[in-house]
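I am still learning, so would you mind making up any protein sequence you like and the tokens describing how it folds?
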Amino acid sequence: MGDLEGLAASIAREGLLQPIGITEDFRLVFGHRRLLAVQGILKWPTIPARVVRVTSLLAAEHDENEFTKSFTTSERVAIGKALEAEIGNRQGQRIDLELPEDFPEVQPGTETRELAAEKAGFGNTRTYQQAKKVTEDGTPELVAAMDAGEVSIDAAAIIAQEPPEAQREIVQMPAAVRRQIVRQLREATELPSTAEARRIARETGMLVADRTGRYRSGLSDEERKALKQDLDSIWAVTRAVLALADTRLDPAELASRLEYWH
């Protein structure tokens, strides 16, 4: 859950800048770390909360710009997850039972993620999935930087693939340096996997670099083993020739020795 002590100290010093989010039936939607810090460390008897009406979000149209201003990116991810769960519950209901009033029907053919992304204020499913990855794999520092707009969702999703310590280090870098690091990481992720690199190498007959930075060939294990034996033999002959070149012998004697070994 990250540094709860540090979060609690920040809340005690500056106050709770963002309330937690709950559904109409008091299920927590977002703000789990804030809740733990306030209840477990600061021992506040109450905590500011805002109600996220999941049913209303599915039923009504809303201004995406206004919605994004009202919630941080990570909060909108949490809302999207709650919407996905709500949609899943509806799709699993018995069709012979009458739906409650104001319980909007999910249009057929609409994917759950697509609808959740739209209603949670994301421009498309890809951006929603990227933001979701950051909240799941990113450190609290990375999530906070994304929420503050210091790191874009796309860049944060790339940084989230790195180990936690590397994420924290990248977030602390100056913006220009951070952009360069993200560009390098993006280029690395665009390289094929080891298996894919070998497949391409077999089809093209060329060496292909994979994500580890190593070049792969299309040879099978047996072919690579045979090639290594051939290379070892060639290297052994090369060393023998180099040794003979350094040997001080009369040309006639050297010729006779070569003839003997031949």
